[in-house]
Structure formats: C-alpha cells, structure tokens
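Chapter review: from sequence to fold.
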Amino acid sequence: MENTHDQHSSQTTLARGGPLSDVCDAFEEELKHGRRPQIEQHLAGWEEPERSKLLYELLRLEIDWSRVRGQERSLHAFVERFPEHAEIVEEAFLATAAPEHSGEALTMTSTYIRRGFLGKGGLGIVYIAEDQQLNRDTAVKFIQDTVADNPRSREQFRLEAEITSRLEHPGIVPVHGLGETGDGRLFYVMRRIRGERLDEAIARFYQQNGDASAGSLHRHVRFHELLHHFVAVCKTVAYAHNRGVVHRDLKPGNIMLGRYGETLVIDWGLAAHVGRKGVFKDSNEKTLMPGSGSGSSQKSGGGTPPYMSPEQAGGRDDLGPASDVYSLGATLYTLLTGKAPFGGSDAAEIMDEVKRGEFPRPTQV
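The token string follows.
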C-alpha cells in the first residue's frame, strides 16, 4: 500500500530539486514514519506566492497519508487553522477527495471541462467543471455509470433535474441546463455552492461549544445563526409544497450553508410531485406539473432512516407534505441536541424505532 502511495505522491507534489520540494520531502518522511508533523512549522519563514504553493502541497500530503491509514481529516478543521487560505484548503481536499477521479482534466462536453470531484450518491456523481464560454466554475451532476442505461433511472434523473430547475427560489440551487454526453450519459449543470452542510456546522458547533443552553455570548450568537438557517429551510420547503412537490429526503446533510449567508436545500433526487388537492391552502404559486418522469414521481424507497417519517419508514408511497414536516422536526431535533433522534445499530432497527416513535426527549439528551 505504501509503495502505491509513494508513486502517487511523486506525481502530485512539487517538482523535485528545489527548496519547496525539499520541505515536502521532509514533511512526507515524517508522515511515513507515523509522526504528526505540523504544517504551520513547515510554512514558517515562507512568503507569498511560495507559501500558498507549499501549503497546498503539504495539505495534499497530509490528507493522502491520513486516508492511507484510514483516518479521515476534516475540511473545516483545516479551514479554521488557515482561514486566510480557505480556498486553497478546499482545493486540496477536492484534489484528493476521490483518487479514482483525479488526473488530467476531462472534457465532458464542448463547453464544460471537469476540474475536480465534489461527491456522489445513489443516482448521481457531482464534479466541479469549468464553463469555458462564461469563464466560471459550475457543479455538474452526472448519472452514475452503473445506472446510466437503466430507463427508470434515466427517467428519475430527468425528473430530478426538471423539478430542481423549475423550483425557482433563493433556497434552491439554480440549474443552468440538462444534456447528454456523446455516449448518451445524462448530466445537468448547476451553480457551484461554496460552504458547508448543516450537519457539518452542527457537529462543529457542539464540538467547539458543547451545550447550547450554556453561557457565552458567542455560543448563543452562533446557535441562533443555525436556527436562522433552519427557519430559511422551512420557508424553502413551504414554497416547494405550494408548488405541489415534496422533497422526501430532508436532513442536515441535504442543507447547504453558503459563505455569504445562503441557505439551500439540495439533492431533490427523491422529490415527488403530489399535486395540491385537499392538501394545500390557497396560494398564488402555480402547481408544478413535471413533463419528465410523470409515471415515476410517486414511489416508495429511498430516504435516510433517522430522518424518515413513520409512514415513509413503513414503505408507504403516498407521502405528502406532512412527511417533509416530520423530517424538518427531526432536523431541528439534531440542531437542538447535536444528535439524530434515532440511533439504532442498523437501518432496520432505526426504522422500527421511527415507526414506534421511540426517541428520547431533547431535554434528556
């Protein structure tokens, strides 16, 4: 394993033979021998632009070696250590996030060039891509290779793109377009959001501040900022419901907090069109009637067990807005306590707890 990593490192660090590469070599030697060298010490005395170059390489080395040893490192912990270089830290994490997708930039279409890996789920995989026409970074979501030729998955992917694009709200990521590659692989292009997920923000809050009811003005301010984000999520979901759409996978991990106060509900891959008859109050919003995948918008399955409503955990496929509201409640529970409301040993046990409504009161947690 270490031999493979040595080969990878020689390709990703600075060119050998100069002072910067000497520092990288020394840093990597310490990592190889199981020590925990401090990046800050190795940056001492370096001025820009060399300092930024060196920081990027040292971060990549530390992240790579941590993964070799099965130890995941936190992006936000590094951002807090190097706040003036947040973008460099992010780029280093993206460059090492998925080695199987690294390497030379891949031309995805005539317009978009892949620059980095962002993440993946059951149906899609997301990359950073450069829009060559407008000279900007975007996020491009591709249907996964394993389901790229499956008619039902393709229909679901198109439906996700259409619903996301037609829910025009500040709390939903704008979609710029839907397309296919030359070999028929579906993708859609979105605004790239820089920031952190709500689950990461909650974990960081409780790691740094402990009990939210304790003293400290800073702690109270930060806690109320998180509550403010939650209220914004509720407003976004209310908008979707008034368009006749339920999300079906609301949870802290599907809420993005942008760097400039944005709150966005992401990943509408399980969204369903449910209409409004007998459910919604009068609204000026026009009911969204999808043209894509109309036959598959209502289906059971999917979701995240600790945040599912009892009816979703029970496998019902006629979910309505109340199911989303329940998931919002479970999200608020996590914000208030730092823990998900249900914590069984596996998904089946958690869903049994959800169906029985067995969770500790927040005051007990």
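Two observations follow directly from the output. The first helix runs from residue 2 to 12. Strands lie at 112-120, 124-131, 136-143, 175-180, 186-191, 195-197, 245-246, 255-258, 263-265, 272-273.
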